[in-house]
Design goal:
It is globular, with a radius of gyration of 25 Å. The protein has a seven-stranded mixed beta sheet with strand order 14-15-16-13-12-18-19, with helices on both faces. α13 links the parallel β15 and β16. The chain contains 16 helices and 22 strands. α2 runs antiparallel to α4 and α3 crosses α4. By secondary structure, it is of the alpha/beta class. It is 36% helix and 20% strand. The chain binds nicotinamide-adenine-dinucleotide (NAD). The site of nicotinamide-adenine-dinucleotide has 29 residues, from α8 and α9.
Length: 506
């Protein structure tokens, strides 16, 4: 955090639909990962500014929750059209702040856009249950009602998709939302919010605030905030989940990962190699569903040299020039951490068969470049295996059997995603049944579910019980109200009852 001088690149907050300049004197520098130049200053907003955002959101919720569900849904219908129409502009903003390639930026937005499409089925998603005549002339039915102000805190690696995992579903359910995007990539979220207002959402229903821990704490301790959705690193997720639940609030935290791909000797070799290249190096490995460990079972290890050869041709680069396979690592600090972990791998005895340290890209001498990196002979007690590296680094292990591969995966603390490549239905079935990971791909390397399912990370990759998007998110963003009713006909009375009269006589 710095006490930077305010410049005309100060990032604005979005309060009541208006871009406003924070009165804070504390800022975090936004730094381009391509050049390491400061491209903006993100304010660490003041308590009164955060309070105002929450208060306004709460007031908006009080009427929005009673706005007919079809009206709320129509806002989302228009919103999805606007996001699609403005995809190139959004992708450009996203590239500028994150360094992602243009195609990857579009992919990021498309995965978020699909959640808006799902939000358009709100009337069905909000249906309750009903049973007539649960006792004599008594009916019981339930509603899913909005809970109030929901808060979201999002990471740097999907500036479009992850905010869109959260606020469209919360808002279409009748809530208001306060979002604190990553201070490294706040501009995509701001533009996405502006488009929601263009689509007709009430001006206070979504507020964008900025800052770091202190501002997150202000949200965590605010009486009017009812739920917290977090996506980010395990340490921060653990902190937010604990503090939110200690404050008796609802919380979900999607955190780190170490995703393994199992390669059986009966798999289709070319499919394996192509899948592994994209899944391990895409977005410079800065994806929570990236494959960071390849488990080559038995004779499939003979394909490793060909894989390494393919990976050696993968090139990072700038998004404007086109042709790059992935962009830079987000910060110099993150790059240094990745390089240190690679050195630790070497020192611990893993075999570095492709070393991406010191990569350069023409035209960007100060970019955070890391080339594709591959280790063989990795052991499960090494730092490169245990840590979430979050870079273009693939660790290879060579188990003798599927059972041994399953043991490795099931003993890992994380459980976000995993994948098996095989032509055997029996192997695929054993893997699917026995693996302790929440999202499983069979001949699919990155099995991210579409939004009508939920994003179901397990073990150390998720804290909470209701997952992001899908029907589970609708449950997370609503409270069930169960009504039991009886209507008396004229002159009908049953006298005084001192206990519940259920009829168990038959
Ligand atoms: P991060 O935890 O550093 O930051 C995430 C958010 O938390 C940011 O908005 C940041 O401002 C805020 N924050 C940072 N420190 C805080 C603190 N001490 N108290 C309160 N808030 C704080 O994460 P990141 O580096 O932006 O993102 C990378 C991480 O996100 C990786 O671990 C990755 O696996 C994870 N991730 C997980 C998923 C998933 O679905 N499981 C998806 C994407 C990213």
């Amino acid at each position: 955090m710095s006490k930077a001088i305010k410049t005309n690149t100060t990032v604005k907050a979005l309060i009541s639909g208006e871009l406003i300049e924070s009165k804070s004197t504390t800022f975090v520098d936004m730094v381009s990962p391509l050049t390491n130049e400061v491209i903006g200053q993100v304010p660490c907003m003041l308590q009164e500014e955060i309070d105002l955002a929450v208060q306004k959101a709460h007031e908006a919720y009080l009427s929005w929750r009673f706005t007919p569900v079809m009206t709320r849904t129509r806002v989302m219908l228009k919103y999805q059209a606007l996001v699609k129409e403005n995809m190139d502009e959004l992708a450009t903003i996203l590239c500028e702040e994150s360094g992602k390639t243009f195609d990857d930026a579009k992919g990021d937005l498309v995965r978020g856009y699909e959640v808006i499409e799902f939000a358009c089925s709100a009337p069905t998603l909000l249906m309750g249950e009903t049973v007539e005549n649960v006792a004599n002339k008594v009916n019981t039915y339930s509603y899913k009602q909005a809970i109030g102000v929901c808060a979201g805190v999002t990471p740097f690696n999907f500036p479009g998709m992850i905010p869109l995992w959260m606020f469209p579903l919360s808002i279409v359910a009748g809530n208001a939302f306060v979002l604190k995007p990553s201070e490294m990539v706040p501009n995509t979220a701001i533009r996405l919010a502006q488009l929601l207002f263009e689509a007709g959402a009430p001006k206070d229903i979504l507020q964008i605030v900025h800052g770091q821990k202190e501002q997150v704490d202000m949200l965590l301790d605010h009486d009017l905030v009812r739920s917290y959705s977090f996506v980010g690193s395990p340490a921060v997720g653990g902190y937010i989940y604990s503090r939110a639940t200690a404050n008796l609030k609802r919380a979900q935290a999607l955190v780190g990962a170490k995703n393994h791909m199992v390669i059986m000797p009966d798999a289709d070799k070319q499919s394996v190699l192509n899948a592994l290249v994209g899944a391990s190096m895409g977005a410079a490995g800065q994806r929570c569903m990236a494959i960071s460990v390849a488990l080559f079972v038995g004779k499939s290890k003979e394909w490793i040299p060909e894989l390494v050869d393919k990976l050696s041709k993968v090139k990072p680069g700038g998004w404007k020039e086109g042709g790059a396979d992935y962009g830079p690592v987000i910060t110099r600090r993150a790059l240094n951490r990745i390089e240190d972990l690679v050195q630790e791998g070497v020192d611990e005895g893993a075999k570095l068969v492709l070393d991406g340290r010191g990569a350069t890209v023409e035209g960007y001498p100060n970019g955070n470049w890391m080339g594709p990196t591959v280790f063989r002979d990795v052991k499960v007690d090494m730092a490169i295996y245990k840590a979430e590296i979050f870079g273009p680094v693939l660790s290879i292990l060579e188990p003798e059997s599927l059972t041994e591969a399953l043991d490795i995966i099931n003993n890992n603390m994380f459980g976000n995603g995993t994948s098996i490549f095989t032509s055997s239905g029996a192997s695929a079935t054993k893997f699917r049944r026995e693996v302790s990971v929440g999202q499983v791909g069979i001949n699919i390397p990155i099995p991210v579910p579409l939004p009508f399912f939920s994003f179901t990370g397990w073990k150390g990759s998720f804290y909470g019980d209701l997952h992001a998007y899908g029907k589970q998110a609708m449950t997370f963003y609503t409270e069930t109200k169960t009504v039991t009713e009886k209507w008396f006909e004229d002159e009908e009375s049953e006298g005084i009852a001192f206990n519940f009269k259920a009829d168990h006589s038959k």
